[in-house]
Amino acid sequence: MSSLKMIRGGFAVLLLALLSFTANADVDAEDFVEEASAKGLAEIETGRMALRKGTSPQVKEFAQKMIDDHTAANQELSGIARSKKDWKIADEAELMNKAKAFILKQRDGESFDQAYANNQVVAHEQTIELFREAMDIRDPELRAFVEKTLPKLETHLRMAKDLAAATGASEAEDDGMNREGTDSNRGLDENGNMNNNRGINNERGINNDNDVNTRPRPGTTTSPQ
């Protein structure tokens, strides 16, 4: 009986190992490189925007570090990708289109500095999740990059949270969530200009032609001007 239990236990361990291997194998190297590159590019673009539009010295200092660190990381990632002859990686234009999904948006009541700080907390949380999922990726060179970069991203997140506290971003976010009658976002285009039209919901973004997409709330009509 004890032997039977040992056999069953052995099968259970083997099954868990196989399931773990299958889960790890699901992390596609090319998909990771494209996603990580797009997120890095978005960090660079929002950092440049913060250098132009930010007012706080802390924001500008943080933004410059994000530009420097993510530029270096993207260059290293591109070098790894180019060394793999069978990898097809998105070009700069394709990456920029993907990166637009991560570009910050500014809500009513937020200053630019607050919007940037809030954006950086969320953006780094998402990027850290992506890197953690890739910790067991098969390619040894790419895995080494992930292991080296992840602690830096965690440091960025701590810095972003400190920046959010310093700019009052958390308080502004809570105030914006509780303000009655406010359901619009003010999106920032690639030049850092605010799109401040009212009467739209928070599903506003930038499309591939660099235009702002606006979708009216259900049940509303637009009066002719």
Average pLDDT value? 74
Strand-pairing-aware structural class: mainly alpha
Helical content stands at 55-70%
Task: Give the termini separation.
Answer: 84 Å
Strand content: 5-15%
Tally of DSSP helical segments: 7
Physical arrangement of strands within the biggest beta sheet: 1-2-3
The biggest sheet, with number of strands, parallel, antiparallel or mixed sense and barrel status, is:
3 strands, antiparallel
- Shape verdict: elongated
Give me the count of strands: 5
- Calculate Rg over CA atoms: 22 Å
**H/E element sequence:** HHHHEHHHEEEE
Q: Report the uncertain regions.
A: 4-25, 176-225
Write the layout of secondary structure elements.
Layout: H1 2-25, H2 29-53, H3 57-83, H4 92-99, E1 105-107, H5 112-133, H6 140-167, H7 169-178, E2 185-188, E3 194-195, E4 205-206, E5 212-213
Antiparallel strand pairs: 1-2, 2-3, 4-5
What would you note in describing this structure?
With 225 residues, the protein is mostly helical. The protein has helices at residues 2-25, 29-53, 57-83, 92-99, 112-133, 140-167, 169-178, and strands spanning 105-107, 185-188, 194-195, 205-206, 212-213. The model is unreliable at 4-25 and 176-225 (pLDDT under 50).
What keyword list fits this structure?
single chain; 225 residues; mainly alpha; two-stranded antiparallel ribbon; 7 helices; disordered C terminus
Write a compact overview of the structure shown:
The protein has 225 residues and is mainly alpha-helical. The chain has helices at 2-25, 29-53, 57-83, 92-99, 112-133, 140-167, 169-178, and strands at 105-107, 185-188, 194-195, 205-206, 212-213. Strand 2 and strand 3 (194-195) form a beta hairpin.
